[in-house]
Design goal:
Layout (H helix, E strand, L loop, with lengths): L9 E4 L5 H12 L3 E5 L13 H12 L4 E4 L6 H15 L4 E4 L14 H29 L2 E6 L2 H4 L6 H21 L4 E9 L11 H6 L6 H7 L9 E5 L2 E5 L15 H6 L1 H4 L11 H12 L3
Parallel strand pairs: 1-2, 1-4, 2-3, 4-5, 5-6, 6-7
Antiparallel strand pairs: 7-8
Helix pairs in contact: 1-8, 3-4, 4-6
The structure holds 1,4-dihydronicotinamide adenine dinucleotide.
The site of 1,4-dihydronicotinamide adenine dinucleotide has 33 residues, from helix 1, helix 4 and strand 6.
Length: 300
């Protein structure tokens, strides 16, 4: 099998001044991509900002013989996002790859969480994914090529104490991907999600040092870079940590048709059948689920 290369391809990686995004940017550049390194350079909770973080990663890429440019815009700022896209187009004339990775945390139990912290985290993760993708979308369509990787989390997929805001944003991103993968199909635009576990400033206080040592961001990046390649699937949630990889899916049980017996009590009485995991399926479109209901209503 040949090596995966990105010669002639242009990539944008948001939040690439540190942590996971930095590794994704370095690896894409090492494999020939020209990279826009975006990072606001703020603190973990999203305050402050400077373009130094992005500039440093650009220096690293250039020192290794690659091509890159820095962008210090916030992914939530429409004018800043437009500048980021324009910088890529002015320098290299196309955008093949977009990794929406930028993120912040404002953890608190739901009781203590201010709505402002909820909206802020939703804004950075969800709208901070939507805005760059929106700005690159018509370019990718016109090229008939695009690879988009959005960043979700086990907190969104499964839950984590103190992260209602973050979890809502992260699963919102999966919902965004689920439809975008359908709309991108005819223009060869593939959209996938990564759910990483990695030792970064986001997690350094959460795990003991010996575990963190085995969870370096570069153990996640190979999965993300594969999702940026021509051979990438579409609509997949890849989970990754410490060099282990798996696929997460939203599945639905086969369920039951209650027909003439329909009642609240019938739902109660059939609960074990409704929830029975045997024959569970994952659907590619919402319409497939509706078709199942029609099949069952027909006695199937
Ligand atoms: P990190 O804090 O090292 O990296 C996030 C980067 O995004 C920072 O460099 C930050 O300056 C930048 N950023 C924040 N707000 C921005 C904005 N408005 N515009 C542009 N850049 C902005 O954290 P890490 O761990 O590398 O996170 C990367 C992504 O992976 C995030 O989306 C995070 O939610 C996600 N993630 C990380 C996990 C982990 O175990 N580290 C687990 C699950 C998801």
């Amino acid at each position: 099998m040949t090596d995966i290369r990105f010669d002639g391809k242009v990539a944008i990686v948001t939040g690439a001044g540190g942590g996971l995004g930095r590794q994704h940017a370095l690896e894409l550049a090492r494999r020939g991509a020209k990279v826009v390194v975006n990072d606001l350079g703020g603190t973990l909770d999203g305050s402050g900002g400077s373009s130094d973080a992005a500039a440093k990663v650009v220096d690293e890429i250039k020192a290794a013989g690659g091509e890159a440019l820095a962008n210090g815009s916030s992914v939530t700022d429409d004018a800043g996002v437009a500048r980021m896209i324009a910088a890529a187009m002015d320098a290299w004339g196309r955008i093949d790859i977009l990794i929406a990775n930028a993120g912040v945390l404002r953890d608190k139990s739901f009781s203590k969480m201010e709505i402002a912290d909820f909206e802020f985290v939703l804004g950075v993760h969800l709208m901070g994914t939507v805005k760059p993708v929106k700005a690159a979308w018509e370019i990718m369509k016109a090229q008939n090529y695009g690879r988009i990787v959005v960043t979700t989390s086990s907190s969104g997929l499964y839950g984590n104490f103190g992260q209602t805001n973050y979890g809502a944003a992260k699963l919102g991103i999966v919902g965004f991907m689920n439809t975008l993968k359908i709309e991108g199909q005819k223009n060869n635009i593939h959209v996938n999600a990564i759910a990483p576990v990695a030792a970064t400033r986001m997690t350094e206080a959460l795990m003991p040092p010996e575990i963190l040592k085995r969870l370096q961001p570069q153990t996640v990046t190979p999965g993300v870079v594969f999702l940026c390649s021509e051979e990438a699937p579409s609509g997949v949630i890849l989970t990754a940590g410490g060099g282990a990889f798996a696929v997460s899916r939203i599945v639905e049980t086969e369920g039951v048709y209650l027909g003439d017996a329909l009642s609240v009590e019938a739902v109660r009485d059939h609960w074990s059948q409704i929830a029975d995991q045997a024959g569970e399926a994952a659907y590619v479109t919402g319409g497939e689920q509706t078709q199942k209901f029609f099949r069952k209503m027909g006695g199937g």
